[in-house]
Design brief:
heterotrimer, A alpha/beta, B mainly alpha, C mainly alpha, A: alpha/beta, six-stranded mixed β-sheet, 21 helices, 22 strands, globular, C: mainly alpha, 13 helices
């Protein structure tokens, strides 16, 4: 008999308008010592399954059918039994370490409380055990740090504490809901390694929920692919990743950016199994007539010279050596040439977003020279000289949910920059421009009269792209444009960006923390760490022969889906 | 830690100074104090005499300095209308107001927090719904109407409680108290219930909103997933996290109570600072108005200061932020 | 019909039409507002026209009590004025002062809040300090102080004429900080959203961004505060009038009427205070119920069951 056996699980949410099916006919098994990955795009129902096992589904959701058996005991609709299991037999890890810990209680208090809930230990013994656990999850100086508060730990450390809390009462089943999504790549690797070690050492059965195929490749033995609440394919990780059988599986795997080579465009297979080709290339022939073809010479379009940026906390009393000063950028120098895609890669805090904001005038640099073609973007009084770059530099942003004003119709969102730059545009010309732009972005014309909230993340990014192109820019800055999107949508958007660049002769500045994506998109790359330039090189050389130790580290730690072949 | 206190102290003094200046301006630029004191008939020489005596012909900063000096020594001038030193009037009436406010505060806060926590945790129980409906009524009833209604019910119809005054008070020298006599205590009941009702309902709703929000946070979900008992989650975790905004509310509420005591004192003819102030507004008695403003500002500033200090001890994030600097 | 259909389809609309309380209180409020607006047509008499009023009619109890008179359904007051009429006219004053002061507070407070949140810097610090300081002073006290100062500055006769404006100003001044604080907080959240950055990159001016982009997105909490603030403003006005420092007795509001009647409570003529008081309570209650429903319906954080 399997340790964990889920059979024909149905979960639905009854709202006032309709009944939404969160999962349908879900079945899988898990043994001790195995790590099962449940992967799927957002809305696939994977988190709901996890919540169902510990009976913590958000109301009005409920299990309508099926069985969940743990160690031969039926858990479904048996709150009393689950109450005793939570924490003791089943451990749960949430996604965001920032909000999982109570800020007003010390780590010791939270650990001891949990331990004493399930095990009969006195304070002293419980504290000892807590210290042991902290050591086991890799916290240095555990005896001292146990008395600290959560906000005194960094993100990765906090997640380790969260893991310690989940396993402190010796559970047999560990469920981790997107445990590394909120963490940097290097920290992610460490946490995954920790989970793998714990699995082996304690003979745990582990379920990892994620949308990241790389995570699946790194540590799971088995994987189940979910889509719209249904498991479309499951089996050994090795088998599925190398040779997916279902069309959904195929569509998912093929969208993952390869880490070991560069491809021209992503092949897109829709989940129904048909190949998708985007026809934006055809439509842009119209645009080229109105835009005017641009010559591509190899002129320098952007120059950053020794740029630094220091943030202070803005207090009214300025202190010299205050610990609140953040050095976002230190002596950053690089060039961008016409027509290329230049990549900025680094983890959080590396300064890549700051660079984008300085180029667009949203933040002033503290020192250094920034030039657009031959003009300085900031004059002697450090004021942004928008007359040189107006309309020519544009940006698309990371979060599709906050980059469009929810109160504006799509038509008005795109019209705004058009009207601003061409004040005497006739109504007819305006509308035809808007139509061109929405065509380029690959969206239907009906979408113009709708509001942003009616669209998915990927569609919203397309609208953002249409808006950015409205001013006919020469330089397009893409600040993590696909980080918030599902993998298959990401592939479509990246293809679109490449098409646009080719047709309209755009120069792109591409910012990401995702190395495989950077490799696919960029010609040249700069690697940043804590505001410093580590390495600049063209992308293939960078990946094949990294020079800087940090670059090497990033490339090593990057989860590789090819690692299984 | 000392740094934190000193910073707060400095801010408090700054606020007091600003209030003093506004008060001072009231005195000097609004109306003619001389006219108010001697009436229409006095001769010009007499007026000049008084002007000199009052120091009105001195430059502003000198006048302000004298003003502040006087305030610190407790000299607030003479009431235009009652012709007595304002400081005397205030010290006579302050115990009445403070006792009333104290009792009301305890009532409002204890009942308010208790019911607020209960309705926040047990969202859907019948009792919660009843409490919420009643609290809505409490917010819609102006304080003076509550007072009138209570007087009508308990004094006129039932005849068990007095409808005005403090009852018998014992003079302790610097303080007169109504706590030590039966009639004094009886007299306190209706006014304090009246005064506390509005605040009580306000507190119930605020605490409830706080509790509900906290119970939906991730760290509460995680605690549940770790198997921690519901009771402990509700009453230990959620309560401690909810304490911080409650303290702010408490601080503000004592201030509001002092302000609303003006109304209650009028309805119940309670001989406190509030009724003194209302009369002053009606008769444009500036010395009393400005003295009241300063006294009240002082009490508010002190309360704020105490609230800030309490934050320091309760929220570890503030403590650590200060220690880092 | 199309707007109605659109409203019904939204979450808010659904919540409204399913909440008997919300519909009931909204209708009640509309009735009161309508009556007071058209007082001349609705009320049976004009009690402030001296030709209509006779001392012979004073102290008549309501029609269902002994001694009642069919001409005066709710009885008459000490000057022979019909209670029902005085209440209708009185509620007009209460509503006018209430609305005007809250609109004043809203415009002033929202403007300062949005600009402070968006522009930041020393301007923001000053505005926020100001709201902090003023928020420590309860609104009733603030209104009293402003009124008192006004009395001191303006002569008595002029004061009577301008009393309503002074009152509106006093109550408005005491309520603006709430609006400022909430709008500033919301503005700070919106300011960090990427559509604002996109607008800046396009080159749109700050004023344009503040009022065309940010403002429409922060109106929800403002509406909730405005509704609840309206109830508070009406209560504040009635309190001030009751204390004798509100509207002049020649144009009495509900609070003034209650004050008049208070003198006769103990001598048995209870209706002179009772009916204005009930009316005031009903008015405040209906607005509060509406505001309460609004707060829950517009709150994205509260998970709906």
């Amino acid at each position: 008999m399997s340790f964990l056996k889920i059979q024909n699980l149905d979960i639905s949410y009854k709202t006032r308008k309709e009944t939404i099916v969160a999962s349908q006919n879900v079945s899988f098994t898990l043994e001790k010592g195995e790590i099962l990955g449940v992967v799927g795009e957002s809305g696939s129902g994977k988190s709901t399954i996890a919540n169902a096992i510990i009976n913590q589904i958000d109301p009005p959701g409920e299990i309508t059918q099926g069985s969940i058996q743990l160690d031969n005991l039926e858990l479904c609709n048996n709150e009393n039994l689950i109450q005793t299991f939570r924490g003791k037999k089943i451990g749960f890890i949430f996604q965001d370490p920032q909000t999982s810990l109570n800020p007003l209680f010390t780590i010791k208090e939270q650990l001891v409380e949990t331990i004493q809930t399930h095990l009969k230990l006195n304070d002293q013994d419980a504290t000892q055990r807590a210290i042991q656990l902290l050591k086991e999850v890799g916290i240095q100086d555990a005896e001292k740090r146990i008395n600290d508060y959560p906000h005194q730990f960094s993100g990765g450390m906090r997640q380790r504490v969260v893991i310690a809390l989940s396993i402190c009462c010796e559970p047999d089943l560990l469920i981790a809901d997107e445990p590394t999504t909120a963490l940097d790549v290097s920290i992610q690797a460490q946490i995954l390694k920790l989970i793998k070690e714990l699995t082996i050492k304690r003979n745990l059965a582990v379920i990892i929920i994620t949308h990241d195929m790389g995570v699946i490749a790194e540590i799971t033995n088995k994987v189940a692919i979910m889509r719209y609440g249904v498991i479309v394919e499951q089996g050994l990780t090795k088998d599925i990743l190398t040779n997916p059988q279902s069309s959904e599986g195929k569509s998912l795997i093929i969208s993952v950016p390869p880490t070991n080579k560069k491809i021209n465009r992503f092949t897109l297979i829709s989940p129904e199994g048909k190949e998708i080709t985007l026809n934006s290339a055809n439509l842009t022939k119209n645009i080229i007539k109105t835009w005017g073809v641009r010559e591509t010479s190899n002129k320098k379009i952007l120059n950053f010279e020794n740029v630094s940026k220091v943030f202070d906390d803005g207090s009214l009393l300025k202190k010299q050596d205050s610990k609140n000063i953040v050095k976002a950028l230190t002596g950053v120098t690089f060039d961008v040439f016409e027509g290329e895609t230049f990549g900025l890669v680094g983890e959080s805090g590396s300064g890549k977003s700051t660079i984008a904001k300085i180029i667009t005038g949203l933040i002033k640099p503290s020192s250094g020279k920034i030039s657009y073609y031959n003009d300085k973007l900031y004059n002697d009084r450090n004021i942004y000289q928008s007359q040189y770059s107006r309309g020519q530099i544009q940006m698309i942003f990371q979060d599709p949910y906050s980059s469009l004003n929810p109160r504006f119709k799509v038509r008005d969102i795109i019209a705004e920059p058009l009207k601003f730059y061409q004040k005497d545009l006739s109504q007819q010309d305006l509308q035809s421009n808007i139509h061109d732009l929405i065509d380029i972005a690959g969206m239907s014309r009906q979408s113009l009269d709708r509001y942003p909230h009616e669209f998915s993340g990927g569609q919203r990014q397309r609208i953002s792209i249409a808006r950015a192109l409205a001013t006919r820019p020469r330089l397009l800055i893409c600040d993590e444009p696909t980080s918030a999107l599902d993998v298959s949508i990401q592939a479509q958007i990246l293809n679109l960006l490449k098409d646009i660049q080719d047709e309209l002769h755009l120069t792109m500045l591409f910012i990401s923390h995702d190395l495989p994506v950077i490799r696919q998109m960029c010609n040249r790359i700069v690697v940043l760490k804590d505001g410093n330039v580590c390495e600049i090189n063209d992308s293939e050389s960078l990946f094949k022969q990294p020079q800087h130790s940090y670059t090497k580290q990033l490339i090593d730690l990057m989860p590789k889906i090819e690692s299984l072949v | 830690m000392l740094n934190y206190f000193l910073k707060r102290l400095f801010q408090a003094s700054l606020v007091m100074l600003i209030v003093a200046f506004v008060s001072f301006s009231l005195f000097n630029f609004v109306g003619d104090p001389v006219n108010n004191m001697v009436g229409q008939e006095a001769s010009d020489e007499r007026r000049e005499e008084i002007r000199d005596k009052l120091g009105i012909n001195d430059p502003i900063y000198v006048q302000f300095y004298n003003f502040v000096e006087n305030i610190i020594q407790g000299n607030f001038g003479i009431s235009y209308q009652l012709k007595r030193p304002v400081s005397e009037l205030i010290s006579e009436r302050m115990p009445a107001t403070l006792e009333l406010v104290f009792v009301s505060a305890i009532l409002a806060i204890s009942v308010g927090v208790l019911l607020g926590v209960y309705t926040g945790i047990h969202r859907d129980s019948f009792l919660s719904k009843v409490i919420l409906v009643l609290s809505l009524a409490g917010v819609s009833l102006p304080t003076f109407i509550i007072g009138i209604m209570l007087i009508y019910l308990f004094s006129v119809i039932l005849g068990v409680l007095p409808s005005f005054g403090r009852g018998q008070v014992i003079d302790l020298g610097f303080w007169t108290t109504g706590f030590l006599t039966i009639s004094g205590l009886k007299a306190l009941i209706l006014p304090s219930v009246t005064l506390s009702l509005f605040q009580m309902t306000y507190i119930i709703r605020l605490v409830r909103a706080e509790m509900m929000e906290i119970l939906q946070t991730d760290y509460i979900k995680f605690a549940k997933a770790r198997g921690i008992a519901e009771n402990i989650i509700n009453y230990r975790y959620a309560l401690k996290n909810g304490l911080i905004p409650v303290i702010t509310i408490t601080g503000i509420n004592i201030g509001t109570l002092i302000a609303f005591s003006i109304i209650t004192e009028t309805v119940f003819q309670w001989p406190g600072m509030g009724s003194l102030f209302i009369n002053a507004v009606y008769f444009v008695d500036i010395p009393i108005m400005s003295a009241y403003m300063i006294m009240v500002a002082f009490i508010f500033v002190m309360i704020n200061f105490i609230v800030d200090i309490t934050y320091y001890f309760i929220d570890p994030r503030i403590r650590l932020k200060e220690e880092k600097e | 019909m199309k707007i109605y259909q659109k409203f019904y389809d939204t979450d808010v609309g659904y919540s409204f039409f399913n909440s008997k309380v919300a519909i009931f209180s909204f209708v009640l409020f509309l009735i009161i507002a309508f009556c007071s607006l058209f007082a001349e047509f609705v009320s049976p008499y004009n009690p402030f026209d001296p030709l209509n009023v006779s001392l012979m009619d004073a102290f008549i109890p309501p029609v269902w009590s002994e001694g009642g008179d069919g001409r005066f359904i709710l009885g008459t007051d000490q000057q022979g004025r019909d209670m029902l009429s005085t209440i209708i006219y009185g509620s007009r004053i209460s509503l006018i002062v209430g609305f005007a002061s809250i609109i004043f507070a809203m415009v002033f407070g929202v403007f300062l809040g949005v600009t402070a949140g968006y522009l930041g810097g020393k301007y923001e610090t000053i505005v926020m300090r100001l709201t902090d300081v003023q928020l420590t002073i309860p609104s009733i006290l603030m209104a009293l102080l402003v009124d008192g100062i006004a009395r001191a500055i303006i002569s008595k006769s002029m004061h009577d004429e301008m009393a309503i404006y002074v009152l509106i100003f006093a109550i408005g001044i005491s309520e603006w900080p709430q609006f400022a604080r909430v709008t500033r907080a919301s503005t700070l959240v919106e300011k960090n959203k990427e559509y604002v950055a996109a607008s800046k990159i396009i080159g749109l001016s700050s004023i344009y961004i503040m009022f065309k982009h940010i403002l429409p997105n922060i109106l929800r909490p403002v509406l909730v505060i405005a509704t609840i603030g309206l109830a508070l403003a009406i209560i504040a006005e009635s309190t001030l009038s009751f204390l004798g420092v509100g509207v002049p007795p020649t144009t009495p509001s509900l609070g003034t009427l209650i004050r008049f009647g208070n003198n006769f409570l103990f001598s048995g003529e209870w209706w002179i205070t009772f009916f204005p008081a009930i009316f005031l309570i009903v008015l405040a209650l209906s607005i509060n119920l509406l505001g309460d429903w609004m707060r829950d319906a517009l709150n994205p954080k509260l998970k709906k069951r």
